[in-house]
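Can you make up a protein sequence with its backbone structure tokens?

===
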Amino acid sequence: MDDSGEWFRYHPLFGSFLRQRCQWELAVELPEIHRAAAESWMAQGFPSEAIHHALAAGDAKMLRDILLNHAWGMFNHSELGLLEQSLAALPWSNLLENPRLILLQAWLMQSQHRYSEVNTLLARAEQEMSVEMDTAMHGDFNALRAQVAINDGDQDEAERLSMVALEELPLANYYSRIVATSVHGEVLHCKGKLTKSLAVMQQTEQMARRHDVWHYALWSIIQQSEILFAQGFLQAAWESQEKAFQLVREQHLEQLPMHEFLLRIRSQLLWAWARLDEAEACARQGMDVLSTYQPQQQLQCLAADGPVLTGARRSG
């Protein structure tokens, strides 16, 4: 940025030359330069940029402080790679002193479907912490365990943990309360208690929107659509999906795997209405969303969408 506040960038070749000269000539001063840069970025409200410089400076204390203040906002905006790199740079002792960072690390594992590692990490942390966790932190841990349990197909354990978490969590711990409420609604859905599940998922959506937790807002709307579809209210399911697509556009959630799931259930709804060409187009659009994801995630989509694509081709 120049003196007038305008951004500019050097040609990549010249920029690489300058970085190399900097490392040669300012090796001793470089950590302090990175600290100053991190402080400057923080003052301007850019914690992600500040983290890059804190990492380059090797300053664990600065990195910890930035994460404690801004990590959850970054998590909610899906800056997962940078968070994982940052947490890996902190000593385990620093994490033990700050259980919310352990909770964050566990949520990152959950987002990567590393369910067994989540429970191992939480159990290790509980065993090695020098001070006993308060009830609210227990609630945070149990809400995450409930999410892992439902993802792993253990409905009874998910129900137990979600209800325990809701009893333990104060209203201020809104994120974990949203998680626990969502899991409770999903368990009701799995057990066929559709009317109760719909009400709980509507409550989850309201909570998630109030606190700008957009991925849970999207998930709760998707669940509502599935419930309405199962009840035979196809037009209402369509309208829920329309609301979900609007949320995807407004909050730029196009690359989330949940967007593929939304496209998949839209495809299934179109299939139920015998709008086969549109169903095929939706199924293919969903596969495009997952084009940058791991093969196993793409296979799940292909397995779900296969009947739609096959039927559309036959009808043609």
